[in-house]
Write a structure and sequence with these properties.
There is one protein chain. This protein is α/β, with parallel strands linked by helices. It contains four helices and four strands. The strands form two sheets. Strands 1-2 form a two-stranded parallel ribbon. It has a two-stranded parallel sheet with strand order 3-4. Helix 3 packs parallel to helix 4. The longest helix is centred in the middle third of the chain and has 15 residues. The protein is globular and about 30 Å long.
Length: about 110
């Protein structure tokens, strides 16, 4: 996200906790677990949506599907999906290479 800020690319971060977003980035509260219809307003003015994989290992696909469906309802034209994002060498979590495939193969 920092690169977007440095390059002055307009970014709207859809996040659970807007207080964690860096200065200079517009933040809107967004929670995958909410009703899809209630999330549509968060996408107002958004044309490209970058979906960073959920950390919920029990319902990752369901959350991704809800976010993508919401984006479609709101008129988003492009969805970019990252299945794994910058895993730290010190992380104790195991890679989840099989589960993200389900989101990647899901028709948009």
């Amino acid at each position: 996200m920092q690169l977007f800020v440095e390059k002055k690319v307009p970014v709207i971060a859809l996040v659970r906790d807007p207080t964690k977003v860096p200065a200079g980035v517009e933040a809107r509260k967004f929670n995958y677990r909410s009703d899809v219809a209630s999330l549509v307003p968060a996408f107002a003015g958004v044309k490209t949506f970058i979906l960073i994989s959920s950390n919920d290992f029990n319902n990752r696909f369901g959350q991704h599907k809800a976010a993508i469906e919401t984006a479609k309802q709101a008129g988003v034209t492009t969805v970019l999906y990252t299945s794994l994002f910058r895993r730290r060498p010190t992380s104790r979590s195991r890679p989840t290479t099989r589960r993200p495939r389900r989101t990647s193969r899901s028709p948009a």
